[in-house]
Specification:
The chain contains 20 helices and 21 strands. With 564 residues, the chain is α/β, with parallel strands linked by helices. The chain has 3 domains: 213 residues, Metal-dependent hydrolases (TIM Barrel, Alpha-Beta Barrel); 156 residues, Rossmann fold; 104 residues, Hypothetical Protein, Haloacid Dehalogenase-like Hydrolase, Chain: A, domain 2 (2-Layer Sandwich). The strands form 3 sheets. The protein has an 8-stranded mixed beta sheet, with helices on both faces. Strands 1-2-3-4-5-6-7 form a 7-stranded mixed beta sheet. α14 links the parallel β14 and β15. α1 crosses α2. The longest helix has 27 residues. It starts with a strand and ends with a helix. The mean pLDDT is 93.
């Protein structure tokens, strides 16, 4: 009888069997193959492969499939994506795992701090010393607390401290399941949606997720699973057939960590036939022969200053090379800035950045411009009464403020702040002493500038809070000296959603990169948010990925290369 198990965990994540013990146990149970799919790590694969090779030399053949199980987030729900046949030693995959490890370490250190505050003193170093060579999960925290007498049961640890609603729980910033599918595909693997019934989605919501993942390149659905009833399995097989997905199956074996759940047989009734693996291998051969069928068009939204541009306001050679490769792969590019749209166009022209599929977003999302069609696709403005109020209030405070027409900067006077602003902005200027009265066109934004007294600028902002809340106006800093006023319904995040809708690209297939507060909304709106290491701490916290290099050392390009 050909028996397999395509979902197995070792002690390298949260299982109790070492990889070698798993191999021996699988042979003892008569399996022909199993996949080692530890959580967010491949550290046990080399050991498992070596043990299987030794067993085969002794006349006990067993196929060990290199795999992984990614923890991802979709609409606030934890979703797991299993990857089989991962090229786990590739440079690309290694870089991705490094970012996962960094995210886990940051989260684990914060959980240690919170536990200590709640009377359970533990450091991250003590935790890793007690569980060496493991990917630390909440199960390890529970075991630590039990071992040291802080709790009476593992359940108590989750109920009181580290469960989703526990006092010491820290949610980990996770990638989307769509990104996990893409990572697995790029690493030569076979992506599968794990245990779909466990998410307790409605049929419609689950099918929506499956459809979206299939669009991204999902290849399998885990229909055969330890806790699936016969009707569950029938429904999942029907769903897999509808979306032309391979049927997969596994026990989700964790050893002693899941009492009563055994390898290959689950809780006693599980059976995963080897024919499922045969069909997966057949699909993999098709995938190798048709790589173009698995590529998806994406769009990058990038801020300019501090992100795409270096401190000399230029694009370095390597960054230009990666942007060109991005475009040649069929992806699109949107240059996003708080600047007026004419200034963004000036930047594009000065950089000689002439790539197909380019868009300009100015005024922090207030205007979207199609470079190829040479037309505005979307525009959101302040009202004239709102603009006049801002101009008059700024005059009372003695703070510089200006606004914009379609073609010019509009200011009530020339001062040192405007002179400073024009060092970088080439948009032509119109001075009008009676600007508040002379305005005839609704602008996308107003900009207040204070070069020395930043507290004065902040006090000005605070004085306007009640009015701004009533009027639906956002006040955001694009840098410590620049305070921008835009409609709440505007913003770079709105521009991300709007342009994706216009181009029929799902926001999950978008990336957004930035460094400052006014980039936050687009980083949160995009499928992948990229924060520059030189950016503000709140931007880094909101992002999915933080670059390892700054904007003077091709930080964005060195991160973007893995998304092409």
């Amino acid at each position: 009888m050909n028996i397999i198990d395509l979902h197995v965990h070792s002690s390298k994540s949260d299982g109790s069997f070492t990889p070698t013990e798993l191999v021996n146990y699988a042979i003892e149970k008569g399996l022909s193959a199993f996949a080692l799919t530890d959580h967010d790590t491949t550290d046990g694969i080399d050991e498992a492969l070596a043990s299987a090779e030794a067993a085969a030399a002794g006349g006990r053949p067993l196929e060990v499939i290199p795999g992984i199980e990614f923890s991802t987030e979709y609409e606030g729900q934890d979703i797991h994506i299993v990857g089989l046949y991962i090229d786990y030693k590739s440079d690309f995959f290694s870089r991705r795992l490094v970012s996962f490890v960094e995210g886990r370490i940051t989260r684990n250190k914060e959980m240690c701090r919170r536990l200590t505050e709640h009377g359970i003193p533990v450091t991250y170093e003590e935790l890793t010393a007690e569980f060496p060579d493991c990917v630390i999960t909440r199960a390890h925290y529970a075991k630590f607390m039990l071992n040291h007498g802080y709790i009476k049961s593992l359940k108590e640890a989750f109920d009181r401290y580290i469960g989703d609603y526990g006092s010491c729980f820290v949610p980990r910033k996770k990638i989307t399941p769509m990104r996990a599918v893409e990572i697995i595909l790029k690493a030569g693997g076979f992506p599968i949606l794990a245990h779909p019934v466990l998410y307790h989605f409605s049929k419609a919501r689950l099918e929506k997720l499956v459809a979206l993942l299939t669009e991204m390149g999902l290849q399998g659905l885990e229909c055969v699973y330890s806790t699936h009833s016969a009707s569950d399995e029938r429904e999942m097989r029907s769903l897999a057939k509808k979306y032309n997905l391979c049927v997969s199956g596994g026990s989700d074996f964790h050893g002693n960590a899941k009492p009563g759940l055994d390898l290959a047989t689950g809780y006693g009734n599980l059976f995963v036939p080897g024919e499922l693996l045969d069909k997966i291998k057949e699909r993999r051969r098709w995938m190798s022969a048709h790589p173009d069928r698995l590529r998806r068009s994406k769009i990058l939204f990038t801020d300019l200053d501090g992100t795409l541009l270096n401190s000399k306001k230029q694009i370095d050679g390597y960054t230009r090379e990666i942007l060109t490769a991005w475009s040649r792969a069929g992806h699109k590019l949107a240059l996003c800035s708080g600047r007026d749209i004419n200034s963004v166009a000036d930047v594009k022209r000065d950089l000689c950045l002439d790539l197909p599929g380019m868009y300009l977003i100015g005024y922090n999302g207030g205007q979207i411009y199609d470079c190829e069609k040479q037309e505005t696709l979307h525009k959101i403005t302040l009202t004239l009464p709102q603009t006049r109020h801002l101009l008059r209030e700024a005059e009372k405070w003695g703070i510089h403020i200006h606004t914009y027409s379609d073609t010019h900067i509009l200011a009530p006077k020339m001062d040192k702040e405007l002179h400073y602003y024009q060092h970088a902005i080439k948009t032509p200027l119109i001075i009008s002493e009676n600007l508040a009265d002379d305005l005839s066109q609704e602008p996308c934004k107003c900009l207040a500038i204070e070069l020395k007294d930043l507290q004065k600028l902040e006090d000005f902002r605070l004085s306007l809070l009640p009015w701004a809340e009533k009027e639906g106006i956002s006040m955001i800093y694009s840098n410590p000296n620049y305070l921008e006023f835009i409609p709440e319904i505007s913003g770079k995040g709105t521009a991300v959603k709007t342009l994706c809708e216009i181009l029929d690209i799902h926001p999950y297939f978008s990336l957004a990169a930035g460094d400052a507060q006014n980039d936050m909304s687009m980083i949160e709106a995009a499928g992948i948010g990229i924060a520059m290491i030189n950016g503000s701490e709140d931007v880094k916290f909101a992002a999915t990925v933080v670059t390892h290099e700054d904007n003077d050392h091709d930080g964005l390009a060195r991160t973007l290369i893995d998304f092409i």
